[in-house]
Amino acid sequence: MSSNRLEGKVAIITGAASGFGRGIATKFAQEGAKVIVADLSEEAGKAVASELQGTFLRTDVTLKADWEAILALAIKEYGHLDIVVNNAGAAYRNKPTESVTEKEFDMVMNVNVKSIFLSTNVIVPYFLKENRPGSFIQIASTAGIRPRGGLSWYSASKGACITATKALASEYGPKQIRFNAVSPVVGITGMTDLFLGATDISSFVATVPLGRPSTPADIANACCYLASDEASFITGVNLEVDGGRCV
User: Fold this and answer.
1) Strand partners, 183
2) Which residues 6+ apart lie within 8 Å of 29 measured at CB?
3) pLDDT at 1
4) Are residues 74 and 14 in contact, defined by beta-carbon separation less than 8 angstroms?
5) Taking the mean position of all CA atoms in its chain, how far away is CA 99?
6) Among residues 2, 3, 6, 1, which one has the least CA distance to residue 223?
7) Which CATH class name applies to 10-238?
8) Which of 27, 67, 172, 214 has its CA 20 to 30 A from that of 84?
9) Nearest 5°: CA angle at 39, between 33 and 41?
10) Secondary structure letter of residue 236 according to DSSP
């Protein structure tokens, strides 16, 4: 059901070719936003953009040049930018922390943390120069709030994401640039087996008071609210979309 809550807004959504990102992009388009799908997966990304009448750009979120390119694309295609959803994420397989490799550590820190640094480094100056309000939404994780062994450095990267979001909200609130985060509990995505070390998630779901994993629609609905004018007084929040898991 559409209510045009994002009518006239332009959004960049990273990792939008699948999973939570695709769900967010779909919801935003349904609510009237012009969507830019930023993803490494060219075939899937183009398909999503075509389906949503949006625009695709192959994007490595760990490269500043790619952020500069996607900002330029937003301005060229739509004349402005309003929303950035930092959804692209990476994880290694749940395992003893002493067996995590330096390559795996660098991967989660670059994709989950450096990408937020680069997005703000490139896009905040645009909002300031144009004197435009802006909204950044980071997809964090309940692992950043309630960490457990086996995913220590992934959890640390998501904790950094949440802390950076709050600090940025404080710094740029006076300029009407909002920063919020959404923390999903484990859902059914291509990364589920990495988090749990198994494909059967029934034992984990038993720890969620509402009795199910998260879905792309759950995360998309939360992001839509935070991106909309309804949330114009909301900044610095980490919204737990977790069925009560972190209570």
Assistant:
1) 240
2) 35, 52, 53, 54
3) 55
4) no
5) 28
6) 6
7) alpha beta
8) 214
9) 130
10) S
- Tokens representing 99 are 């067996």
Residues 6 or more apart whose Cβ sits within 8 Å of residue 82: 9, 10, 11, 132, 133, 134, 135, 227
Please, are residues 52 and 29 in contact by the beta-carbon 8 Å criterion? yes
Spell out the alpha helix ranges (H) of the chain: 19-30, 42-51, 64-78, 102-109, 115-130, 152-172, 192-196, 202-205, 216-227
Using CA atoms, how far apart are residues 244 and 242, in angstroms rounded to an integer? 5
pTM: 0.94
111 touches 62 (CB < 8 A): yes
> Structure tokens of 228?
């909309």
List, as own/partner pairs, every contact residues 164-167 make where C-beta atoms lie below 8 angstroms and the sequence separation is at least 24, other chains included.
Answer: 164/113, 164/116, 164/117, 164/138, 165/116, 165/136, 165/138, 165/140, 165/236, 165/238, 166/236, 166/238
Q: Which two tokens stand for residue 119?
A: 């997005």
Kindly give, in sequence order, each residue whose CB lies less than 8 Å from that of residue 212, ignoring residues fewer than 6 positions away. Answer: 205, 243
pLDDT tens for the chain, 247 residues long, are 568 999 999 999 999 999 999 999 999 999 999 999 999 999 999 999 999 999 999 999 999 999 999 999 999 999 999 999 999 999 999 999 999 999 999 999 999 999 999 999 999 999 999 999 999 999 999 999 999 899 999 999 999 999 999 999 999 999 999 999 999 998 766 666 666 655 567 888 889 999 999 999 999 999 999 999 999 999 999 999 999 999 9
Cβ atoms of 53 and 25 within 8 Å: the answer is no
Name the residues annotated as catalytic: 154
Phi first, then psi, for residue 83 (nearest 5°) are -135, 140
pLDDT at 196: 65
